[in-house]
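Translate structure to sequence.
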Protein backbone atom coordinates (compact mmCIF):
# COMPACT_ATOMS: atom_id res chain seq x y z
CA UNK A 1 0.00 0.00 0.00
CA UNK A 2 2.85 2.35 0.82
CA UNK A 3 4.29 2.08 -2.70
CA UNK A 4 0.78 2.51 -4.17
CA UNK A 5 0.41 5.76 -2.18
CA UNK A 6 3.87 7.03 -3.11
CA UNK A 7 3.31 6.34 -6.79
CA UNK A 8 -0.19 7.79 -6.94
CA UNK A 9 -0.06 11.03 -8.97
CA UNK A 10 -1.04 13.86 -6.61
CA UNK A 11 -2.57 17.32 -6.76
CA UNK A 12 -1.77 19.73 -3.92
CA UNK A 13 -4.14 22.66 -3.30
CA UNK A 14 -3.14 23.98 0.13
CA UNK A 15 0.52 24.84 0.50
CA UNK A 16 2.21 27.96 1.88
CA UNK A 17 5.51 28.39 0.07
CA UNK A 18 7.03 30.05 3.15
CA UNK A 19 6.05 26.91 5.08
CA UNK A 20 8.39 24.83 2.90
CA UNK A 21 11.50 26.61 4.22
CA UNK A 22 13.62 23.76 5.60
CA UNK A 23 16.07 24.68 8.38
CA UNK A 24 19.05 23.85 6.11
CA UNK A 25 17.94 26.42 3.52
CA UNK A 26 17.08 28.85 6.32
CA UNK A 27 20.72 28.72 7.45
CA UNK A 28 22.04 29.00 3.90
CA UNK A 29 19.91 32.09 3.20
CA UNK A 30 20.81 33.60 6.58
CA UNK A 31 24.50 33.30 5.64
CA UNK A 32 23.89 34.68 2.15
CA UNK A 33 21.97 37.69 3.47
CA UNK A 34 24.01 38.20 6.66
CA UNK A 35 21.02 37.65 8.92
CA UNK A 36 21.61 36.40 12.47
CA UNK A 37 19.26 33.57 13.39
CA UNK A 38 18.13 33.07 16.99
CA UNK A 39 19.20 29.40 16.68
CA UNK A 40 22.72 27.99 16.58
CA UNK A 41 21.99 24.84 14.57
CA UNK A 42 19.57 23.13 12.22
CA UNK A 43 18.77 20.72 15.06
CA UNK A 44 17.91 23.61 17.38
CA UNK A 45 15.47 24.96 14.79
CA UNK A 46 13.77 21.58 14.45
CA UNK A 47 13.64 21.19 18.23
CA UNK A 48 11.71 24.48 18.46
CA UNK A 49 8.93 23.05 16.26
CA UNK A 50 6.77 21.91 19.15
CA UNK A 51 3.55 23.86 18.78
CA UNK A 52 0.71 24.47 21.21
CA UNK A 53 -1.69 26.02 18.71
CA UNK A 54 -1.84 28.01 15.45
CA UNK A 55 -0.36 31.19 16.98
CA UNK A 56 2.69 29.45 18.43
CA UNK A 57 3.40 28.10 14.94
CA UNK A 58 2.79 31.45 13.24
CA UNK A 59 5.35 33.13 15.52
CA UNK A 60 8.09 30.77 14.27
CA UNK A 61 6.81 30.78 10.68
CA UNK A 62 7.06 34.60 10.42
CA UNK A 63 10.44 34.54 12.12
CA UNK A 64 11.72 31.86 9.73
CA UNK A 65 10.81 33.80 6.61
CA UNK A 66 12.97 36.76 7.74
CA UNK A 67 15.84 35.26 5.72
CA UNK A 68 14.04 35.78 2.37
CA UNK A 69 15.12 38.97 0.59
CA UNK A 70 16.10 38.58 -3.05
CA UNK A 71 14.45 37.19 -6.17
CA UNK A 72 17.01 34.35 -5.97
CA UNK A 73 15.91 33.54 -2.40
CA UNK A 74 12.28 33.19 -3.47
CA UNK A 75 13.41 31.16 -6.48
CA UNK A 76 15.52 28.79 -4.36
CA UNK A 77 12.72 28.32 -1.82
CA UNK A 78 10.15 27.54 -4.52
CA UNK A 79 12.52 25.34 -6.53
CA UNK A 80 13.32 23.28 -3.43
CA UNK A 81 9.59 22.73 -2.86
CA UNK A 82 9.00 21.76 -6.48
CA UNK A 83 11.78 19.17 -6.38
CA UNK A 84 9.95 17.72 -3.32
CA UNK A 85 6.83 17.68 -5.48
CA UNK A 86 8.64 15.57 -8.04
CA UNK A 87 9.85 13.17 -5.32
CA UNK A 88 6.27 12.90 -3.96
CA UNK A 89 4.74 12.52 -7.43
CA UNK A 90 2.81 15.79 -7.10
CA UNK A 91 1.95 16.70 -10.69
CA UNK A 92 -0.03 19.90 -10.04
CA UNK A 93 0.27 22.33 -7.14
CA UNK A 94 -1.39 25.61 -6.16
CA UNK A 95 0.73 27.56 -3.75
CA UNK A 96 -0.02 30.40 -1.38
CA UNK A 97 2.37 33.16 -0.52
CA UNK A 98 1.98 35.96 2.06
CA UNK A 99 2.91 39.24 0.29
CA UNK A 100 2.26 41.41 3.35
CA UNK A 101 4.72 39.43 5.48
CA UNK A 102 7.50 40.36 3.01
CA UNK A 103 6.36 43.89 2.10
CA UNK A 104 6.53 44.77 5.80
CA UNK A 105 10.23 43.77 5.73
CA UNK A 106 10.93 45.94 2.70
CA UNK A 107 10.81 43.18 0.06
CA UNK A 108 9.06 44.36 -3.12
CA UNK A 109 6.14 42.45 -4.57
CA UNK A 110 8.00 42.11 -7.88
CA UNK A 111 10.90 40.39 -6.10
CA UNK A 112 8.57 37.91 -4.39
CA UNK A 113 6.42 37.11 -7.40
CA UNK A 114 9.18 36.98 -9.98
CA UNK A 115 11.26 34.53 -7.93
CA UNK A 116 8.31 32.23 -7.21
CA UNK A 117 7.03 32.40 -10.80
CA UNK A 118 10.43 31.70 -12.39
CA UNK A 119 10.81 28.52 -10.32
CA UNK A 120 7.28 27.43 -11.29
CA UNK A 121 8.07 27.97 -14.98
CA UNK A 122 11.33 26.01 -14.72
CA UNK A 123 9.50 23.15 -12.93
CA UNK A 124 6.86 23.01 -15.65
CA UNK A 125 9.51 22.85 -18.37
CA UNK A 126 11.97 20.52 -16.63
CA UNK A 127 9.68 18.29 -14.52
CA UNK A 128 6.24 18.63 -16.12
CA UNK A 129 4.74 19.95 -12.87
CA UNK A 130 1.98 22.49 -13.43
CA UNK A 131 1.38 25.14 -10.79
CA UNK A 132 -0.45 28.32 -9.92
CA UNK A 133 0.04 31.04 -7.32
CA UNK A 134 -2.57 32.36 -4.86
CA UNK A 135 -1.96 35.61 -3.04
CA UNK A 136 -3.00 35.23 0.59
CA UNK A 137 -3.93 38.08 2.92
CA UNK A 138 -3.05 38.11 6.61
CA UNK A 139 -6.39 38.18 8.41
CA UNK A 140 -4.89 39.66 11.58
CA UNK A 141 -4.06 42.82 9.61
CA UNK A 142 -6.68 45.37 8.52
CA UNK A 143 -8.88 45.13 5.45
CA UNK A 144 -7.42 48.46 4.30
CA UNK A 145 -3.95 46.90 4.25
CA UNK A 146 -5.26 43.92 2.30
CA UNK A 147 -6.92 46.26 -0.22
CA UNK A 148 -3.75 48.32 -0.66
CA UNK A 149 -1.74 45.14 -1.17
CA UNK A 150 -4.30 43.82 -3.64
CA UNK A 151 -4.20 47.02 -5.67
CA UNK A 152 -0.40 46.98 -5.76
CA UNK A 153 -0.46 43.32 -6.82
CA UNK A 154 -2.68 44.10 -9.82
CA UNK A 155 0.46 45.37 -11.56
CA UNK A 156 1.57 41.70 -11.58
CA UNK A 157 -1.82 40.13 -12.21
CA UNK A 158 -0.52 37.63 -14.76
CA UNK A 159 1.51 36.02 -11.95
CA UNK A 160 -1.40 34.86 -9.76
CA UNK A 161 -4.78 33.24 -10.24
CA UNK A 162 -6.58 33.96 -7.00
CA UNK A 163 -6.66 35.34 -3.48
CA UNK A 164 -6.95 33.67 -0.09
CA UNK A 165 -6.98 34.43 3.62
CA UNK A 166 -4.63 32.98 6.25
CA UNK A 167 -2.89 33.65 9.61
CA UNK A 168 -4.58 33.99 13.04
CA UNK A 169 -8.18 32.90 12.53
CA UNK A 170 -10.08 33.34 15.81
CA UNK A 171 -11.31 36.94 16.17
CA UNK A 172 -10.65 37.68 12.47
CA UNK A 173 -13.80 36.38 10.72
CA UNK A 174 -14.07 36.23 6.92
CA UNK A 175 -16.59 39.10 6.69
CA UNK A 176 -13.79 41.49 7.75
CA UNK A 177 -12.47 41.09 4.16
CA UNK A 178 -15.72 41.34 2.18
CA UNK A 179 -14.62 44.39 0.14
CA UNK A 180 -11.32 42.96 -1.04
CA UNK A 181 -12.98 39.69 -2.06
CA UNK A 182 -15.69 41.67 -3.92
CA UNK A 183 -12.96 43.50 -5.82
CA UNK A 184 -11.06 40.34 -6.71
CA UNK A 185 -14.27 38.62 -7.85
CA UNK A 186 -15.05 41.55 -10.17
CA UNK A 187 -11.52 41.26 -11.52
CA UNK A 188 -12.02 37.58 -12.33
CA UNK A 189 -9.77 35.97 -9.69
CA UNK A 190 -10.42 32.67 -7.95
CA UNK A 191 -11.40 33.02 -4.28
CA UNK A 192 -10.49 30.77 -1.35
CA UNK A 193 -10.14 31.27 2.42
CA UNK A 194 -8.86 29.42 5.46
CA UNK A 195 -11.90 28.79 7.65
CA UNK A 196 -12.85 26.31 10.36
CA UNK A 197 -9.24 25.39 11.22
CA UNK A 198 -9.23 26.79 14.78
CA UNK A 199 -12.24 29.03 14.18
CA UNK A 200 -15.88 27.90 14.40
CA UNK A 201 -18.14 26.45 11.70
CA UNK A 202 -19.80 29.89 11.44
CA UNK A 203 -16.58 31.19 9.83
CA UNK A 204 -16.97 28.58 7.07
CA UNK A 205 -20.53 29.77 6.49
CA UNK A 206 -19.32 33.38 6.39
CA UNK A 207 -16.52 32.54 3.92
CA UNK A 208 -19.14 31.03 1.61
CA UNK A 209 -21.84 33.68 2.05
CA UNK A 210 -19.93 36.95 2.53
CA UNK A 211 -16.74 36.22 0.57
CA UNK A 212 -18.19 33.86 -2.04
CA UNK A 213 -15.20 31.51 -1.92
CA UNK A 214 -14.97 28.50 -4.24
CA UNK A 215 -12.96 26.34 -1.84
CA UNK A 216 -12.51 26.26 1.93
CA UNK A 217 -8.99 25.75 3.29
CA UNK A 218 -9.11 23.31 6.25
CA UNK A 219 -12.85 23.37 7.06
CA UNK A 220 -12.50 20.57 9.60
CA UNK A 221 -14.95 22.24 12.00
CA UNK A 222 -17.81 21.97 9.47
CA UNK A 223 -19.19 18.82 11.11
CA UNK A 224 -20.31 20.97 14.06
CA UNK A 225 -23.10 22.43 11.86
CA UNK A 226 -25.36 19.96 10.04
CA UNK A 227 -26.99 22.62 7.83
CA UNK A 228 -23.53 23.81 6.77
CA UNK A 229 -22.47 20.26 5.89
CA UNK A 230 -25.57 19.96 3.69
CA UNK A 231 -24.69 23.22 1.93
CA UNK A 232 -21.08 22.12 1.36
CA UNK A 233 -22.29 18.81 -0.10
CA UNK A 234 -25.05 20.34 -2.25
CA UNK A 235 -22.70 22.98 -3.68
CA UNK A 236 -19.81 20.53 -3.84
CA UNK A 237 -17.44 22.98 -2.17
CA UNK A 238 -13.97 21.42 -1.88
CA UNK A 239 -12.27 21.36 1.53
CA UNK A 240 -8.46 21.38 1.45
CA UNK A 241 -7.73 19.36 4.58
CA UNK A 242 -4.18 19.20 6.00
CA UNK A 243 -3.97 16.18 8.33
CA UNK A 244 -0.42 16.50 9.71
CA UNK A 245 -0.89 20.26 10.15
CA UNK A 246 -4.00 19.61 12.24
CA UNK A 247 -2.11 17.16 14.46
CA UNK A 248 0.93 19.45 14.86
CA UNK A 249 -1.24 22.48 15.74
CA UNK A 250 -3.40 20.39 18.08
CA UNK A 251 -6.65 21.24 16.30
CA UNK A 252 -7.33 17.49 16.59
CA UNK A 253 -6.27 15.31 19.58
CA UNK A 254 -4.26 12.94 17.34
CA UNK A 255 -4.53 11.45 13.84
CA UNK A 256 -6.96 8.71 14.90
CA UNK A 257 -9.21 11.49 16.26
CA UNK A 258 -9.20 13.40 12.96
CA UNK A 259 -12.66 13.95 11.41
CA UNK A 260 -11.35 13.00 7.94
CA UNK A 261 -13.14 9.60 7.73
CA UNK A 262 -16.41 11.16 8.90
CA UNK A 263 -16.03 13.94 6.31
CA UNK A 264 -15.44 11.43 3.51
CA UNK A 265 -18.32 9.26 4.76
CA UNK A 266 -20.68 12.24 4.56
CA UNK A 267 -19.74 12.75 0.91
CA UNK A 268 -17.89 16.06 1.33
CA UNK A 269 -15.40 16.96 -1.42
CA UNK A 270 -12.31 16.40 0.73
CA UNK A 271 -8.71 16.76 -0.49
CA UNK A 272 -5.42 16.06 1.34
CA UNK A 273 -2.61 18.62 1.46
CA UNK A 274 0.59 19.44 3.36
CA UNK A 275 0.06 23.13 4.39
CA UNK A 276 3.54 23.95 5.85
CA UNK A 277 5.48 20.73 5.31
CA UNK A 278 8.85 21.96 6.67
CA UNK A 279 7.13 22.64 10.00
CA UNK A 280 4.58 19.81 10.20
CA UNK A 281 6.54 16.61 9.69
CA UNK A 282 6.51 16.21 5.94
CA UNK A 283 5.24 16.62 2.42
CA UNK A 284 2.37 14.93 0.58
CA UNK A 285 3.63 11.35 0.92
CA UNK A 286 4.11 11.84 4.67
CA UNK A 287 0.52 13.10 4.96
CA UNK A 288 -0.82 10.17 2.95
CA UNK A 289 1.18 7.70 5.09
CA UNK A 290 0.11 9.23 8.40
CA UNK A 291 -3.53 9.10 7.30
CA UNK A 292 -3.15 5.53 6.06
CA UNK A 293 -1.51 4.41 9.32
CA UNK A 294 -4.45 5.82 11.27
CA UNK A 295 -7.36 4.76 9.04
CA UNK A 296 -6.25 2.00 6.61
CA UNK A 297 -8.31 3.44 3.75
CA UNK A 298 -9.02 1.30 0.69
CA UNK A 299 -7.43 2.05 -2.67
CA UNK A 300 -10.84 3.25 -3.81
CA UNK A 301 -10.87 5.90 -1.08
CA UNK A 302 -7.41 7.14 -2.15
CA UNK A 303 -8.53 7.30 -5.75
CA UNK A 304 -11.63 9.24 -4.64
CA UNK A 305 -9.49 11.74 -2.67
CA UNK A 306 -7.22 12.21 -5.68
CA UNK A 307 -10.16 12.68 -8.04
CA UNK A 308 -11.62 15.25 -5.64
CA UNK A 309 -8.37 17.24 -5.84
CA UNK A 310 -8.36 17.11 -9.64
CA UNK A 311 -11.98 18.31 -9.66
CA UNK A 312 -11.13 21.12 -7.20
CA UNK A 313 -8.01 22.38 -9.02
CA UNK A 314 -8.08 25.76 -10.77
CA UNK A 315 -6.92 24.42 -14.14
CA UNK A 316 -8.07 24.55 -17.74
CA UNK A 317 -10.44 21.80 -18.96
CA UNK A 318 -7.55 20.36 -21.01
CA UNK A 319 -5.21 20.17 -18.01
CA UNK A 320 -7.99 18.65 -15.86
CA UNK A 321 -8.58 15.98 -18.49
CA UNK A 322 -4.85 15.21 -18.58
CA UNK A 323 -4.75 14.92 -14.77
CA UNK A 324 -7.67 12.43 -14.64
N1 LIG B 1 -3.23 28.45 9.11
C1 LIG B 1 -3.33 29.78 9.04
N2 LIG B 1 -2.39 30.54 8.53
C2 LIG B 1 -1.30 29.97 8.05
C3 LIG B 1 -1.14 28.61 8.06
C4 LIG B 1 -2.16 27.80 8.62
O1 LIG B 1 -2.10 26.56 8.68
N3 LIG B 1 0.06 28.35 7.49
C5 LIG B 1 0.58 29.53 7.12
N4 LIG B 1 -0.23 30.52 7.45
ZN1 LIG C 1 -2.82 26.88 5.43
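Result:
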Amino acid sequence: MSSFLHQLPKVELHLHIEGTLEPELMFELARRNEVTLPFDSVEAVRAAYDFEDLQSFLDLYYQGMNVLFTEADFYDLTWAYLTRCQANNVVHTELFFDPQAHLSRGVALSTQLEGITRACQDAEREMGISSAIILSFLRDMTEEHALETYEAALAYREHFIGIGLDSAEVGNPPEKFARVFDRAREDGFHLVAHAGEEGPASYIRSALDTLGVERIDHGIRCLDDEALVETLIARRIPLTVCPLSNVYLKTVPDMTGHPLPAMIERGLCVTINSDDPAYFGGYMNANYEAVQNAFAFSRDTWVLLTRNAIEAAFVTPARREALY
